Predict the structure of inorganic diphosphatase.
Amino acid sequence: MPVYVVGHKIPDSDSICGAIALAHLKNQIGEASVATRLGDISPETAFILDKFGFEAPELKLSYAGEEVYIVDHSELTQAPDDIAEATIVGIVDHHKLGDLTTSTPLECWIRPVGCSNTVIKMMYDFYNVEIPKNIAGIMLCAILSDTVIFKSPTCTTADIKCVEALAEIAGIEDFKALGMDMFKVKSAVEGTPARDLVMRDFKDFNMNGNLVGIGQLEVIDLSVFDDIKADLEADIAALKAEGNRHSVLLLLTDIMKEGSEMLIVTDDLAKVESAYNCKSVDNKVWLDGVLSRKKQVVPPLQDAFA
C-alpha cells in the first residue's frame, strides 16, 4: 500500500508541486508514495505543470484506512474530511503548527520559510537524492509563487538560495521573468465566475471556535477587478452564509504596489478593524505592504479572536 502525499483543500501551486516533488523523493528512498490532490488546480498551477510536462495528480477525496503524508499545512479544516480515519505518517509545512493530531509517531519537517518546496529541497539535500530537471522546475515555480517573487515578508535567504539552485538544475536562466509570466496568468480574471475567483486560493481557519474564511487573489494590477468587484463582494457574502462562517475576507493583492485591498464580510467588523488597526470604508480597506496571508493576515486576526 502506498503512502498518499497530499496538500490542502483548494490546492495552490505549493500544495500540488510539493506533493509531486515529495512523492518522487519518497519513491527514490524506497518508500512507495503517490501524489494526490483535494481539489481542482488553479490556472497558475496548470501553467506550471504544462510548462514542465506534468499531469495533475490524481483527485482523491477519501483517505480512510490509508497512510497519508500532509504537505503545506497542519490544519483540520484544510485536511481530507476523513483524516481522522487515516494514519498521518508525516507533515512538511511552512505555516504555524495547526490542530492535526496523530496516535503514532510521524516525520515532521516544518520550517519558518516562504514555501513548502523550500523545505522539500532541504529534504532532497538531506537524503542526497538528485532532483530531476522537471521537478526542479515546478519546485522553483512554487517558491516564486509563495514568496511573490521574493517580495513577500515570508521570503527568507533559504528560499532565494533554493530558487537559485533549482533554476540551475532546471536550466532556467531568468527565473524572475518566469515568475512574472506566472503572475500574468493569475491576473487573467476576465470571464471567470466570481465564485471561481473567490475560491481560487481560499482557506478556512478555526479561530477560537469561529470559522473564518480568507481568500487571496494576487495580480499585477488591481484594475482588473474594477468591473467585477461588486460581484466578488456579493459572492463572499453568500459564501459566509452558506458555510455558517463568522467572517469571510478576500485579499486583492497588487504585487507591483506591494499591498492588498481587503473585502470584508463579518459578524463583528470592529474585531476585524482592530486586528489590522484600520478603519474600513464600505467594508473595504487598503492594507499597505500586506502581501502574505500566512504572516500578515492570519496571526493578528487570531490574536483578535483569542
